[in-house]
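I have been asked to look over a protein record a colleague put together. Alongside the sequence sits a line of tokens, each denoting a local backbone shape. Please read both lines and tell me whether the tokens look consistent with the sequence. I do not need a full report, just your reasoning and any doubts. I have pasted the whole thing underneath without changing anything.
>
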Amino acid sequence: MTQQPQADLKPRSYDAVLGGEKIPLPTRGVVLGGIAGVRTRFNSAIASQRISALREALQYGDRGLELLLSGLKDDVLQVQLAARLLLANSSYRELENYQQILAKYQDYDRFHCLHTLTGHANLVNSIAITADSLTLASCGNNKTIRVWDVITGTEVATLAGHADIVRAIAIAPDDRKLVSGSRDRTIRVWDLRDRKTLLTLSGHSGYVNSVAITPDGKSIVSGSQDTTIKTWCLATGEALQTLKGHTNLVDAVALSPDGKIIASCSWDTTIRVWDRISGAQIWEFIGHSARVLSFAISPDGTKLVSGSLDTRIMVWDLIAGKKICTLEGHWGWVKSLVISADGKTLISASYKIIKIWDLESGEEILTLNGHGDLINSIILSSDGRTLISGGEDNLIKIWGAR
């Protein structure tokens, strides 16, 4: 029997090879050899292997940093996104030139769709993201909540338990708990790590359309089809108080950055502002000519922005209790709003499009196209570099600068 020449040997599927060898990377194989192995995987033609290599690169100090910086220039946008998110959550944030390296990623003029998640079989109602921007949760009309790895774009878990459509979700500041509101009239508190229901809260007599968690992570605020807003203890599920005033269903609730103020919007076309501790109504804003569907509160707590079925966006002064201005540009319902952490930029979602505005001047900066139907929910990462949207085309899109 003639032995095959060594030069002709090639790794087969599932083989292990040493990093740094000039041989083809085996399909579903393992590369050994520390940083050399990581570099070998990063040089793969397969994007998922390059992303895996970037995750491992964090263990290798300056040599790993070189790979992350190379990942920012990758031809595949998803690899660029992975490199940026990993860099933002690493010890490299302490580098003097860190902000300079990532400065361009906060330029909204450069925003494009970087990746599309396609796991939902029907419309996406609401999305939420962890503080580190690495984990995403989404809910739709199939009674479940999906949990995603943002870097790889893969679904990592499904939370099942609600008996009807899940309308809204929120993630606690510590990233350990998720709260969901459903058409089954209940609120559930989930352990995001163990993927289990911790509490089921009952008390609303109508659909639960919106949920929010206070910045200290201790309380839940919910808005319902039954026209009320309720507050709850997150740890025990105890109902704390019920706020009444709206004459039609409450579509959304929001909290001020200090958690002291609740804002609610309703199909009765009004916006009401409440003191969360006393339950007293502070303001009632009237201006929209149709149902109010969405709003956001500025980081300094001085402005509230509302979006409506009338296609307009209104900016309100929370200190003086009056309207500041009206923004026009959408031709469909304004379903979701978010304000950047510095309070300078407003992002709004409507039918098929997302608009980015200068909140101070009211001028439109950019329109993002990509969805094929109404966009129900948008969220912005805490550093302002990643925008995520979910809509009635069953898609979740991740946006950022490139």
